[in-house]
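hey so i finally got around to running the thing on that chain from the lab meeting. sorry it took forever, my laptop kept dying and i had to restart like 3 times. anyway pasting the input first so we r on the same page abt which one it is
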Amino acid sequence: MLKSKIIGTGSYIPTEIIPNSYFLNHNFFGTDNVEINQSAETIIQKFSAITGIKSRRYAAKGLTASDMATMAAEQAISNASVDPELIDIIIVAHNYGDIKYEGSPRDMVPSLAARVKHNLGIKNISCIPYDLVFGCPGWLQGLIQCDLAIRSGVAKTCLVIGAETLSRVIDSSDRDSMIFSDGAGACIIQANTTSDSGIINSVVRSDTDIELEFIYSAGSNKGEKEDSEYIKMKGRKVYEYALKNVPQAMKQCFDHSGNKIESLKMILIHQANEKMDEAIVKRFFELYGIEDLPQNIMPMNISSMGNSSVATIPTLLHQVLDNQIDTYNISDGDIILFASVGAGMNINAITYKW
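ok and heres what got predicted. didnt touch it at all, straight out
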């Protein structure tokens, strides 16, 4: 049976390390435009305890999402040892386009994928580049779309990238802004007819009723009149939605894969919030009657990387494969579960045999 197999990964991790202490001189306001009656130090300590974030990465001035996407793609292409001219589809998942600096216009035309194709020097007119805006699950959704294209015979080799510069759409007066970061991750996925490794199955869910604006855009919490809009989220609503629905979607996906829960080696979940991710995975196993989490089931990089939206899972995957995260490794035959949740609200999951 034809499957879609990841044959190479890459990432670009920005060089600017932003520790939590960077925010000590910030004045934080609530959504009611009233200053929070706590010291910045106390707010930061509580933030770190909940999210697990100690530092994050910001892109250097002038470096755009498509620039980072290109560098991640180059590494993935090199690791996969493929001819770029043989790539049939390029998907770049993002949510804000190219933003050269804070406050600059969001540039999305031409598409970031077209820019990546140009940057890679690909001349093949049958290589089709397009962007995917799907919230944080965008990169995973790109994998799902390419898997469908490969299984239907439309494509044989695809490049899927997640890239974002969230540091340029954050409100410095909003304590939630400390969660966000920049980065890019990529993979080459290719038709596999010689083994049973690759994507087994997937699940996608979208809730756009009362959930539509759990993550949204709005002005500064200070209430100042300005043209800029920033990424915002209703943290409690997002947490409750994710904890209720993501474990169910993960179980639905894994059950349909035909594998037994005991065979699951690793879960690569969107690096949204350490406590939330741990709660999601714990509840997922509880659905199988398993109270204690298996050891080394969920690698995390959020403590030093922050939440880079679409880039979190491909970056994490690359780091695990490159032995950059202690005690975690992936071997041939391992069963992996990918899962993500984000603006939309959207959820997706993939069961994968390495």
